[in-house]
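for the writeup, i need someone to sanity check this before i put it in the appendix. the sequnce is what the collaborator sent (i think, or maybe the updated version? ugh). structure was predicted straight from it, no edits. if anything looks off just tell me and ill rerun, i have time this weekend
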Amino acid sequence: MKKIKNLCKLVYTNLNISAKMTILYLAFLILSLIISSVVYYRLSYQLTLQKSRDLSMQTLYSLKSNIYTMLDNTSFNSRIIMGNMDIQDILTYKELANTQESQRKLTNYLVTLMDSAPYIKSVYIFDNFDTRYGSDKKYLKSLKIQNIKNAYWYKDVEKEQGYYIVRLNADSVFNIHSSEKTVSLLRIINNNITMKPIGLLMVNLSEDGFQSCYNEIVQKYGTRIVILDENNRIISTNDDLGQEEYRNLLDSQVYKETNSSIFDHNDKPYLYSTMFLERYGWKMIIGIPLEQLQAEGSLYRMASLLIIILNGILLCIGIVFVSRLITSPIHRLLKSMKAVESGQFDIVEMETGNDEIGKLKNGYNLMVIEIKNLIGRIVTEQKTKRKAELNVLQEQIKPHFLYNTLDAMGYLALAGKNGELYDALEALGSYYRKCLSKGSEIITVEDELEIVRDYIHLQLLRYGDIFSVHYDIDDEILKYSTVKLILQPLVENSIYHGIKPKGEHGDIRISAKLQDGYAVFTVEDNGMGMTEEELEQLNNNALDNNLNSFGLRGTIQRVKIYYEREDLYIIESTYKQGTKITLRIPVSQEDRRSV
């Protein structure tokens, strides 16, 4: 640790004044930004959390009011039904029970009650004579128990002596084929005079009614709502959490009138708040995504961030200003020397005295003069070396091709095909006449294509019909000049490394076109192709090490050396589907030869 400390001290001591001041200022700036960011984040998080709690409580109070209003309205309408004299008489006197007139009257009253509240799905009245009256939006349901007094909740209703209770799925006493949740308002009907029980009223509320209490509330923020009964069973929800998960959520909270806690849902933080409906022992839980609320504060955060950035910019400007006041002469000299970075070795023209800056300027000018002389010598040597490399590669390619051609002609001689051997010799002579080109390295595209045709003729004489050749030549390109012997090695590569290894009849396509100042040559085959690994090696400049592609390697090297560029070729290949090699040779009108 002590060595590292001494090393840092040594490095800092050797820095110039401007660098030292910049490091100190930046250290304080970074420390200030870190502290400001931490404080801002914590404050922003706390504000978002508080806003979420306030919004949760407001939403829960609104939902609580809506539920109370819905149940109070249902209770009020039920009292109107219970106090109706016709209903009192029908339920009191046995001779009126279950008559057609009684059924009609009671049904009309119950239909009126259902029409007054769309969230009421059914209403049933049971008298003490085992008669049932009802109205249902779907169909009247029959009891699956012998008597309504045998219902598991009947004693709870009876204890209230006329006041209502609410129970989840109390209509399970009926033969129901649906799993839809129902909240039932149940109350004993007492005689208005004797105050003795004469029947029971059941009003069944649909889950849609409870959803309507919070649908408008939860449209914003992606809020999640769940309403649980006294036994923590789900009455209504728009959430996808299970009943057991809500129980765990409640267990993690301290039971009081309202409580909030953070709970992750689908890897997103939610603030879940709880409120009790004391009247029924129910619980309401609301979950608000913190990300939504944090997004709303983005404008405030953006403004704060801009203020921090502005302060940072102003501080940086101050750093530069103070540093320049101290190191202005050195900066002027460095500005004059800046051209070196772009490769311009120019002497510094700057008025200086006989001080340290003047001595530094004079020493720099002497260095620039020596560097320019050295670069000139290196450029000359490199040109000579590259020319020699080009000639060596050209001489390597000639015997390489001659070896393959003589091999093919030897096969014809052994096979006794004298006529074809003669044709091969004619083609070989034509090939070398064009290759020699009076010693010139540059030939026309037309001559280059003739060389390719002669070579293909030789190969077809040897291999018969194992491949076919297709040409797509732009006539306009024929009179342009190019380095000679660049297409034949590519065709050779297609035959020996593409068509032959595949063992099937293949196609070779040769095209030559003018495109945007380039002569674009393409040699494409449908042979073996290359794997992705082999292709990646070729395209990562590993071509020089590929001993299996001497002709291809030599051609690419010659083109790169002659045109002094690296981006003149593209190799594309798919295993067992073929290979496509494209050469892009820069040309101009000066390269076009007259007919």
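Residues 382-591 form a domain with the Heat Shock Protein 90 fold (CATH 3.30.565.10). Residues 180 and 207 are 8 Å apart (CA to CA).
thx in advance!!
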